[in-house]
Design a protein that fits this description.
There is one protein chain. By secondary structure, the protein is α/β, with parallel strands linked by helices. The protein is built from 6 helices and 13 strands. The strands form 2 sheets. Strands 1, 2, 3, 4, 11, 12 and 13 form a 7-stranded mixed β-sheet that branches. Strands 5-6-7-8-10-9 form a 6-stranded mixed β-sheet, covered by helices on one side.
Length: 273
């Protein structure tokens, strides 16, 4: 068992530019004799042209070193998800979808001699109808604790107030980390709640830097100005942002020691980024 367990959580991956920067940054972080990262989690619900995840891109990201895929309300946008979600050993969908929904809402992995549980949940404010994430935690947390040493929740939600409240709620339940996703805009409120739970309202996203949360400005503008349906296209730019957090846990107590934001902008036309 390592004295420290270092988890990298990558914010929402938006299309090809994001997949490419994830590949390069992970190569950087894992280069050398000793990697500074023990396990990589990424939110992938927008990884395939901005909506959903194809099996091809699932396998591509796995080959780059992403160990666990979380998702959100766009997980079903690519229809081949239904043909492989039961086969994947690293993909999870929100746990508060109704009973009988394909896939699983949490998984347990072995990392550096500890059991790491990753849970995915959808928020309710400004989102579609979904089962209660609060009830899921109430009903299942003791079972998940019995299976794991460290628990990380990806809370895929819109409203910051809801995320903050949910983070405090999870801290009371003994969950060691709650990271927000969905808005694609990184917040600067990373902290350790009550000395026991690493928290950030939104990790942010990976994608074209000159964009509207990863999408092209022109198509976003038309939709917002006209109010009419408009196809969203993933923005293309030589500068690509990489948003993530690294959470370091004590390997013995399983408590989080630090949460560090990554907010990088890389020029993809340069050989060394």
């Amino acid at each position: 068992m390592n004295s420290k367990v270092k988890i990298l959580f990558i914010g929402d991956i938006v299309g090809r530019p994001a997949r490419e920067v994830v590949k390069r940054v992970l190569e950087e972080l894992k280069s050398g004799d000793e990697s500074d990262i023990d396990f990589v989690i990424a939110n992938v619900e927008n990884a395939s042209h901005g909506f959903g995840l194809t099996e091809k891109n699932h396998d591509e990201l796995a080959s780059y070193g992403v160990d666990c895929f979380t998702s959100g309300n766009h997980i079903w946008d690519k229809k081949d998800i239904f043909s492989y979600i039961e086969k994947s050993d690293r993909l999870i969908r929100p746990a508060n979808y109704p009973k009988g929904t394909p896939g699983v809402g949490y998984r347990v992995f072995e990392v550096c001699g500890v059991k790491l549980a990753v849970i995915n949940l959808l928020g309710r404010t400004f989102m579609g109808a979904i089962d209660s994430p609060w009830a899921f935690i109430e009903d299942n947390i003791e079972k998940i604790k019995s299976e794991s040493d460290i628990i990380i929740v990806d809370y895929h939600a819109e409203a910051t107030a809801e995320k903050i409240c949910f983070g405090k709620f999870c801290a009371e339940k003994g969950i060691q980390a709650v990271v927000g996703t969905h808005t694609h805009v990184q917040t600067a409120d990373e902290k350790i709640i009550n000395g026991s739970t690493a928290y950030i309202s939104d990790v942010g996203s990976c994608g074209a830097y000159d964009s509207v949360i990863g999408m092209a400005y022109e198509s976003s503008l038309k939709r917002l100005v006209s109010g009419l349906p408009e196809r969203f296209d993933v923005a293309q730019d030589e500068s690509v942002q990489f948003n993530a957090v690294k959470i370091t846990f004590d390997g013995q107590s399983a408590k989080p020691e630090s949460i560090e934001r990554f907010n990088l902008v890389k020029n993809m036309n340069e050989d060394n980024i």
